[in-house]
Write a structure and sequence with these properties.
Layout: H1 5-16, E1 24-25, E2 27-33, E3 41-44, E4 49-54, E5 57-62, E6 70-77, E7 84-88, E8 91-95, E9 101-105, E10 113-118, E11 126-130, E12 133-137, E13 143-147, E14 155-160, E15 168-172, E16 175-179, E17 185-189, E18 197-202, E19 210-214, E20 217-221, E21 225-229, E22 237-242, E23 250-254, E24 257-261, E25 265-269, E26 277-282, E27 290-294, E28 297-301, E29 307-311, E30 319-324, E31 332-336, E32 339-343, E33 349-353, E34 361-366, E35 374-378, E36 381-385, E37 391-395, E38 403-408, E39 416-420, E40 423-427, E41 433-437, E42 445-450, E43 456-462, E44 465-470, E45 474-480, E46 503-504, E47 507-510, E48 520-526, E49 531-536, E50 538-541, E51 548-556, E52 564-570
Parallel strand pairs: 46-52
Antiparallel strand pairs: 1-42, 2-45, 3-4, 4-5, 5-6, 7-8, 8-9, 9-10, 11-12, 12-13, 13-14, 15-16, 16-17, 17-18, 19-20, 20-21, 21-22, 23-24, 24-25, 25-26, 27-28, 28-29, 29-30, 31-32, 32-33, 33-34, 35-36, 36-37, 37-38, 39-40, 40-41, 41-42, 43-44, 44-45, 47-50, 48-49, 48-51, 51-52
Length: about 575
């Protein structure tokens, strides 16, 4: 049968290529444990149930025995990161970041059900409910007032913009109290929910992120705790303040111990993972940001105090044995052989000999265009996450004279890096996970990416999977397929049959390795690199797929690495 002109036009367009999807290229999320940073908690005091926001989900906990809370469920999975919670009469109201307001029925906390949702213009960070209205702190969009009289169809009825970024909200009487980031506390009259109006404010020196109200006082989470008198709502004023401690930045595991950089070095026994316990501590003069452990030594990137070398031969009594100052601010460290590679902010990559741990000394350095944050070393190259300047590839074969040989700066704010095989995996905050081919170190090229719900901060890689620490959305497990939209230029002989068809109709034949019909596996991906189908040896039914260009990645036996990539055109 002769094909029509329109059919040929379609085929030509398909073969010309397809633009990648907005959220991924050559990567797909294969699983997630959405529970991450905890920003919110709500309590059902009648039933002794606590609802704890955690990343992209909510835990329901039985707290009838406060000393031993029991998990009832983790079935609430939201479409955005949980920043705020409010419980009222068997309903849980969730401020779910970009997903706006979600309303859940928690009559049975072990089997909750989503009732409805209402998108908000920006990012829903906080929520309070009074009567038939939910009051949402919506970051750049201020305070949004949403009718929840019908929980299946909540709808906005009014709003009041705020000068800062609305992060938290509490309601008492006829007033909503908004924690407005750099603009402090804003007091908004909601006597008329359709026309909320600011009546007073109190500036604070820090960033107001959360607020609670009791009696005549508002309590702000604002670089610590700030207490604001609201006895006169038109003229709120600060009456008290309390500082709170800092947080952990990074961790390294060696044997039964975790070594945590939390401003200093903290040693925690994880011999019993269910009951980790602190066993040792070593104060550092700077601000410990990164740590790696090799043998009996922990190497700490200590902010403005450079590199600190700490003996952990006795984990209960870690002690500094040597140090080497750096010009700027030490963010992270990697160790390979007798050298430590320190990312030093504006001063780029510093190479420090640690052959004598008591007397580390800088032997070379390589400047980078922006701010060097993270580093991974593989073979003769150091791979630096250089913030706005993306990935920098630095040759370190001669540690005394490291030099940049290539870069890829299309990744956004690059904060973390891991290297496995021929790929560097970068975390780029709101730009998610970026995968860079470093097969040719002089010309690194992005070959895949995957956005994550929050901010991708750190990454580890095992096999074809990247494990991404998302600042607000927990652990994301992402599979990378490989180069995706490029055929293998020189496939090994026998990797595919010589007569393998370019055009496929209905059935795609998958040969065995080396031409033999024995166990093999492969993946069929679309032109954007997203997996469409797992392929088995023999006939594979592709009759239900849309016509277009696809790529077959073949691997032999139990190997996970692809040994051939070929392009096929599926037509119906």
């Amino acid at each position: 049968m002769r094909a029509s002109a329109s059919t040929f036009l379609l085929l030509n367009l398909l073969l010309a290529g397809v633009a990648p999807a907005a959220d991924s290229l050559n990567c797909r999320e294969v699983g997630s444990w959405p529970f991450g940073s905890a920003y919110a908690v709500a309590l059902d005091s009648t039933r002794d149930i606590a609802f704890c926001g955690s990343g992209g989900g909510v835990y329901a906990l039985d707290v009838s025995n406060p000393a031993a809370p029991q998990k009832l469920s983790e079935a609430i999975r939201t479409r955005g990161v949980v920043h705020g919670l409010c419980y009222q009469a068997n309903r849980l109201y969730i401020a779910a970041d970009r997903a706006g307001l979600e309303i859940w029925d928690v009559t049975n906390p072990e089997s909750p059900a989503r009732l409805g949702y209402c998108y908000t213009p920006y990012w829903a960070y906080g929520v309070a409910v009074a009567g038939s209205y939910a009051y949402v702190a919506d970051f750049d969009a201020g305070l949004r007032v949403i009718s929840v009289a019908d929980p299946a169809y909540p709808g906005e009825v009014g709003y009041c913009d705020t000068p800062g970024h609305a992060r938290g909200v509490a309601v008492a009487g006829s007033y909503a109290y908004v924690a407005d980031d750099s603009a402090g506390l804003r007091v908004i009259s909601v006597a008329d929910p359709a026309h909320p109006d600011e009546v007073g404010y109190c500036d604070t020196p820090g960033y107001a992120e959360g607020v609670a109200v009791a009696g005549d006082y508002a309590y702000l989470a604002c670089g610590g705790l700030r207490v604001i008198s609201i006895a006169d709502p038109a003229h709120p004023r600060e009456v008290g303040y309390r500082y709170t401690p800092y947080w952990a930045y990074s961790v390294a595991i060696a044997g039964d111990y975790a070594y945590v950089a939390d401003g200093s070095l903290c040693v925690i026994s994880v011999a019993d993972p269910d009951h980790p316990s602190g066993v040792g501590y070593c104060e550092t003069p700077g601000d410990a940001r990164g740590v790696v452990v090799t043998g009996d030594y922990a190497y700490v990137a200590d902010g403005n105090a450079g590199l600190r070398v700490i003996s952990v031969a006795d984990p209960a009594h870690p002690s500094e044995v040597g140090y080497c100052g750096t010009p700027s601010y030490a963010w992270d460290v990697a160790v390979a052989g007798d050298y430590a590679y320190v990312t030093d902010g504006d001063s780029g990559l510093r190479v420090i000999s640690v052959a004598d741990p008591a007397h580390p000394s800088e032997v070379g350095y390589c400047g980078t265009p922006d701010c060097a944050w993270d580093v991974a070393v593989a073979g003769n190259y150091a791979y630096v996450a250089d913030w706005l300047a993306g990935l920098r590839v630095i040759a370190v074969a001669d540690p005394a004279h490291p030099s940049e040989v290539g870069y890829c700066n299309e990744t956004g704010n690059t904060s973390g890096v891991a290297v496995a095989g021929n790929y560097a995996y970068l975390t780029a905050l709101s730009s998610g996970l970026r995968v860079i081919s470093v097969l040719d170190p002089a010309h690194p090229t992005e070959v895949g990416y995957r956005l994550t719900p929050g901010e991708a901060r750190g990454v580890a890689v095992a096999g074809n999977y990247a494990y991404v620490a998302d600042y607000v959305a927990g652990l994301r497990v992402i599979e990378f397929y490989g180069g995706g939209v490029e055929e293998t230029p020189h496939r090994p002989t026998g990797a595919v049959e010589a007569n393998a068809a370019t055009v496929v109709r209905g059935v795609l034949m998958m040969p065995g390795a080396n031409g033999a019909w024995r166990k093999a596996h492969g993946v069929l991906a679309d032109a954007a690199g997203r997996k469409v189908l797992d392929l088995k040896t023999g006939a594979n039914d592709v009759s239900r797929l849309a016509s277009g260009v696809y790529f077959v990645r073949e691997a032999a036996g139990g190997e996970r690495s692809a040994v051939g990539v070929r392009r096929v055109l599926i037509v119906r």
